[in-house]
Every structure is written in C-alpha cells, then in structure tokens.
Design brief:
The chain is 38% helix and 14% strand. With 399 residues, the protein is of the alpha/beta class. A 7-stranded mixed sheet has the order 1-9-8-7-6-2-3, sandwiched between helices. The protein has a 3-stranded antiparallel sheet with strand order 10-11-12. Helix 6 (167-177) links the parallel strand 6 and strand 7. The protein is globular. The termini are close together.
Length: 399
C-alpha cells in the first residue's frame, strides 16, 4: 500500500491511545460510582479507597495496599518508608521514566545506574552484579559505594513496558548483599514471571501508577504501594497523611500522599475489566508480531520479545527500528500516532550531570533511546487499524 502524499488526508487515523471507547462502554457505571461519592460527601480515604486497596493488593498477590496520589508518590513514599535518604545509594536503571531516579534524588539519596538487557529493556542482573563487584565493597556489614562512601541500601528495578524484570536473579543479589527492593511496576500491573508470580510481589514494596494511559487508568493522577509486610504497610499508611498517627501527633515526617476517593471509585469500576483489556493488548501484540513477520522487513524492524512463559501485559508495544526519527515523521503524516519512550536516558539528563556520567557509559540504554518507537496497542484497536500501522511502516522502508 502507499500512504497519501504530503498535504493529503491519510487513509486512516490510528491514534497512539484513545480512551473514549473504554469510557463509553463504562460511562453509566462510572457516573453512578461518582454520584455515590458526591452524595456521601466522603471525599478523603473513604470506602471506595478501602475497597480498591484490598482488591488491588489481592490482584498483585500482596496482603496490603496503600492508595497514594500518583505513581511518582508511590515511589517516593516507598523510599521514605525504607528510611532511604542522604548518603544512601539506590541501584536502578537509566532507561525508564524520570520518576524512578527523580524520587531517589528527592530523598537525598544517589541513583546508581546499571545498564539494561537489550531484549527486555529491563535492568540487567549481570550489570548489577558487575557494579557491586567492581564499584562497591562490604564494610561493617554494609555494602558501600567506594567512590562516594554511600551505603548501597536498595535496588529499584523497573518492569518496563509491561514485562517483569528478571526478579529471581535480582532478588538473589538483594539477599546476597542485604539490599531492600522497591519494584517500580508503574507499567506492569498484572504482569507475571514464568511461575505466575506477579509484579509487586517479589520485593519489599511494589509501586503502581494509575495514570490515565496505564492499563488500569484513573481520571487523573493516582497510584498505590502494595506489600506483604504488615509493619511496612502501617508505616506507608501513616506517611501518606503527613506522618501523623493519631491525627496531629507526628512521630516522623511524611507528606500528603493520599489517593482521592473519586479516583478510587472510578478504578473500582474498571478493575474487573483489567484482565480482558490486558488480553486484548496481548492479542494486538500477537497480530503485530505476525503481520511484521509477513511484511519481511528483516532487521529493519525488531518486534518486542516476551520471555517464554511470562505474562507480558503490553502497556506499550515498542519496536526497534532503523531511521527511527524519519519513520516517526512519516507515520505522523500517515495518521499513525507513536511515541518515543525514552529519547534521553537518565544518566545523560542535565539534572543528573552531578553523577559524572558521559555518553557510552550505558551503551544498551543509549542504543534503546536511539532506536525504539512505541506503536498503538490499546485494547479497542481493530485489526484493520493494526494492519494499517504495519503497512505504513513497510511502505516507509520500501520507498
């Protein structure tokens, strides 16, 4: 097929994401849930929040859920709950949304980046081990970063794009070196490893985002921490209300990190549909995989790889391509929405210049930043739309 010349209307429009079909299907139920909150006038930590916390915790194979104001605040309050702060070091990935490392820095701790696995885009356990063995040492029962003298206190893996990181290997490293583990599962609610163990259930605390673009999206910002540790759950619960328990009595400093009752009410309506939506994303991913294989594009387009047996929920369908920026511009002209997650890895961001990194330090993260492109994958896409995306990409490379 050929796309229309510049200045002509495209044959089809395929947005990166369209939330309106999902809302239309649930509109009456969502509006009724919102009305119940309005009628009750109970807007802060009410029954909808308690229902959501219990349901999401169970869904994530955890005992406790603590609803918070965003996925970013989930990471921040998790770090605070584990008493990570000035002088501490947290190992994480440079190829992720800014909040992962940004929240570490906000506590006064130092992000220590380790490169990614090029197949899954998740942090590489081999890179973590290499960092520990070459740049750290044990001292007085602690793991210490030689260059800064900081206590390496935690590991924050990210389950990027909807696929669980290699948590067996990462948890083994955490146990070996006494590290706490915070899972950034903002893009991975319901994702699981080959044994069926779900994101958020491996480490000390799992952090979720309910940003509208996520598989389970609110009508604004919202998030949650989940854990199997009762003491941590209690601390998280207190931290989200300024560290006060009972009210106006503060044993430690927290923040205003509460999830909104209205957002919880919306999410309670949506949660029972989550598995169906994730299954639709998986079907769309399988269609793409087969259609790209038929297109015979060779190494020009490399489709994402789900590891054998895992439950990949495809928050994003991210391909590696040649001439990425040219392709993206061409697709825009063809009416196809795309996004680059993420164009600049965190170690090269200006705000992290103080860490002293340079181009070439984390080559796999840098290569991913230059080659990757996210395609439309949301559940309501038709096969005709999916095929149009593939045909448009094939047409670009045949020109």
């Amino acid at each position: 097929m050929s796309n229309p010349p510049t200045g002509r209307s495209p044959a089809m429009r395929v947005p990166l994401l369209d939330l309106k079909p999902q809302y239309r299907a649930l509109e009456a139920e969502i509006q009724a849930a919102i009305r119940r909150v309005c009628d009750s006038q109970a807007f802060i930590l009410g029954p909808a929040v308690r229902e959501l916390e219990a349901s999401v915790a169970q869904y994530c194979q955890c005992r406790f859920g603590i609803g918070v104001s965003s996925g970013t605040d989930a990471l921040l309050v998790a770090l605070m709950a584990l008493e990570i702060g000035a002088g501490d070091v947290v190992i994480t990935t440079p190829y992720t949304f800014f909040a992962t490392a940004g929240t570490i820095a906000r506590t006064g701790a130092r992000p220590a980046f380790c490169d990614i696995d090029p197949v899954t885009f998740n942090i590489s356990p081999a890179a973590v081990r290499a960092f520990i063995e070459t740049e750290c040492e044990r001292s007085d029962g602690k793991l210490v970063h030689r260059a800064t003298g900081g206590h390496v206190k935690a590991l924050m893996p990210v389950h990027l794009y909807g696929q669980v990181a290699d948590m067996d290997a990462l948890m083994a490293l955490a146990r070996e070196y006494g590290l706490r583990v915070i899972e950034d599962a903002a893009q991975a609610i319901g994702a699981a490893d080959a044994n069926g163990k779900r994101a958020c259930s491996f480490g000390d605390i799992g952090c979720l985002s309910f940003f509208p673009t996520k598989n389970l999206g609110a009508f604004g910002d919202a998030g949650m921490c989940v854990t199997n540790d009762a003491a941590l759950a209690e601390r998280l619960d207190i931290l989200r209300v300024h560290g006060g328990k009972p009210k106006y009595y503060h044993a430690f400093i927290g923040g205003n990190f509460r999830i909104d009752e209205l957002q919880a009410a919306v999410l309670n309506v949506k949660l029972p549909h989550l598995d169906d939506w994730s299954a639709a994303r998986q079907r769309n991913a399988a269609f793409y995989d087969a259609a790209f294989a038929r297109a015979g594009l060779g190494d020009r387009v490399r489709t994402p790889k789900a590891l054998p047996g895992v439950r990949h929920i495809y928050n994003q369908y991210v391909i590696r391509v040649e001439r990425r920026d040219e392709l993206r511009q061409y697709l825009a002209g063809a009416g196809v929405g795309t996004e680059i997650y993420y164009p600049i890895p965190l170690h090269l961001q200006q705000c992290f210049a103080y860490l002293g990194h340079k181009a070439g330090d984390f080559p796999e993260a840098e290569r991913a930043a230059q080659e990757t492109l996210a395609l439309p994958i949301y559940p309501e896409l038709s096969e005709a739309q999916l095929q149009y995306v593939v045909d448009s990409i094939a047409d670009f490379y045949r020109r």
